[in-house]
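Single Protein Entry

Contents — chain, fold
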Amino acid sequence: MSTSLPSTLQRQQRTSRWISTAFSLCAFTAIALFFIPAFVIRPFRYQAPRALFVAMALRQRAPLGTLIAALACFAFAFALWKTASRWRRSILVLTLFVVAFSAVMARLNYFEWMFHPIAGPQFLAQSDSKLDAKEMIMAVRLGDDARAYPISQMAYHHVLNDVVGGVPIAVTY
């Protein structure tokens, strides 16, 4: 009888370690699927082509991936809860919070939060403009009406609705 108790305890410890490892891997996956694209895809910062490719691929798979990883995390946390100490339970809850946050954020277009639309564009005559001569612009001419949009402003706002020559347009960069 004394030999079966240690082997049962050892099996429980191995099972607990396996579940803890699986929980950690699922949590890491869910968090990475959200945070890697959020870190790599940032405006006004160099984005290496390979890193951008990986970030976009992760971003595309993040909604389903974070959902699966979050569900697995909750199942593993439930299995670990009974034997976990109070300190480990706190870590489980904190990790589940970050995993749930990642799963929700992966479904939102948080990149749009960074860019605020221009409420009412104001245009100046070329002679009144204070743009530097080297400033890059996007220009549109329809009929006798012409507009110039500074790249520095468009890089921040990305989209501007305007009417040029009586034609509604969407200017984007």
Notes: Residues 69 and 83 are 22 Å apart (CA to CA). Residues 4-40 form the longest helix (37 residues). The chain has two domains: 4-114, 126-172.
